[in-house]
Amino acid sequence: MDLAGLRVVKAVADTGSVSRAAEALNCVQSNVTARIKRLEEDLGVDLFLRLSRGMEPTPAGRVLSGYADRVLRLVAQARDAVAEAAGRGGRLAVGSMESTAAVRLPPVLARFHRAHPDVELTITPGPTETLLADVLAGRLDGAFVGGEVVHPDLIARRIFDEELVLAEPAAGLTTESARRTLIAFGRACAYRGRAEMAMREAGRVPFRVMEFGALDAILGCVGAGMGVTVMPRSVVERDPWRELLVARPLPDALARMPTQFVRRADAIETASQRAFLKAFSEDSCSGIPLKAAAAGATGTPTSRTGLNGSSAAC
User: Fold this and answer.
1) Cα separation of 257 and 253, whole Å?
2) Architecture of domain 3-67
3) CB distance 307 to 128 below 8 Å
4) What are the start-end ranges of the H helices in the chain?
5) Distance (Å, whole) CA 150 – CA 304
6) What is the secondary structure of 61-118 as a DSSP string?
7) Distant-in-sequence, close-in-space partners of 245: CB < 8 Å, separation ≥ 6
8) Do residues 258 and 158 lie in contact, with contact meaning Cβ atoms separated by under 8 Å?
9) Can 86-161+258-284 and 162-255 be said to share one CATH topology?
10) Domain 162-255: which CATH class?
């Protein structure tokens, strides 16, 4: 059993197929098959069921895949820690809601890059539920997500609060159909959930939903008079949308949306990650002021099992 074998086990377990695992590992299928066979002979158990539709882990295979995931993440963390200690900067993979990436991150990224030019930083935008899954799977070191996060394997640190508003075209809604059309992200987004509640409270029922996967597409369609949306005020009131959209306040229960930085509870917080979050705490334009930027940081896993899906945001 070695790191290469563990990578093969995890790839087959994740993809459910020798061919897809070989593609992910950039090797030939015969190498994957041979690795799995040698591991099964070494451990004396079958790790996968060979099915007509692919490969399915046995109970023993699921156990080994779980250990492989943890070992490989720890190895990656060790490499980054050594690189940092050697002054080579290390790597940092961060996920972010698209609205946060568009409005909040640019000045922070600029400050961080000036102070830490050797850190290899990547930003991956996405909806909260996807980002949480990527953090849990070790594909991201951490992510900025919306709403309260409750999961035993995650640590959540509250960074700032956004004020959500109902955005309408500045030229007005000219048809009843547009008044009852919600333009939004998919259902994994709490902006979507808050928007649906706002539509109901405003009596705009029944309403229809037009889903888009890009922030500017949503805002552009609202500006063109196709419907309404719910977004952070910081997004609606930036150029060029401030001339095309008008922000209507929402009730307090719907307006306040916390943005939190989450990471795995068993992951080591690197110097690069601490410096990145410090750059955020030094930013003077980080949403609705909090008494402390780290007010939600506990240093321990969140207390209850499961994710609070109703508070997920894009």
Assistant:
1) 9
2) Orthogonal Bundle (1.10)
3) no
4) 3-15, 18-25, 29-43, 59-85, 98-103, 105-115, 128-136, 176-179, 190-201, 215-223, 233-236, 252-255, 271-281
5) 6
6) HHHHHHHHHHHHHHHHHHHHHHHHHTTS--EEEEEE-HHHHHHTHHHHHHHHHHH-TT
7) 167, 168, 169, 170, 219, 222, 223, 236
8) yes
9) yes
10) alpha beta
DSSP state of 300: S
Q: What CATH architecture does domain 86-161+258-284 belong to?
A: 3-Layer(aba) Sandwich (3.40)
- Distance set, CA 310 to CA 147, 176, 192, 258, 307 (Å): 8, 29, 10, 13, 9
Token code pair at residue 145:
């997500």
**Backbone torsion region of residue 33, taken as left when φ is above 0, otherwise alpha when ψ lies between -120 and 50, otherwise beta:** alpha
How many Cα atoms occupy the beta-carbon half-sphere of 179 within 13 Å? 11
pLDDT in tens, the chain (314 residues): 889 999 999 999 989 989 999 998 999 999 999 999 999 999 999 999 988 888 999 999 999 998 898 888 888 878 877 877 766 767 899 999 999 999 999 999 999 999 888 888 999 998 888 899 999 988 899 999 988 898 999 999 999 999 999 999 999 887 889 999 999 998 888 788 888 999 998 889 899 999 998 999 999 999 999 999 999 999 999 989 999 999 999 999 899 999 999 999 988 888 888 888 888 776 544 555 443 333 334 444 543 333 333 333 46
- The rounded distance, in Å, linking the Cα atoms of 9 and 62 is 9
| 3-state SS, residue 129 | helix
For 113, list phi and psi in degrees, rounded to 5: -65, -40
Could you identify the residue written with the tokens 């492989």? 68
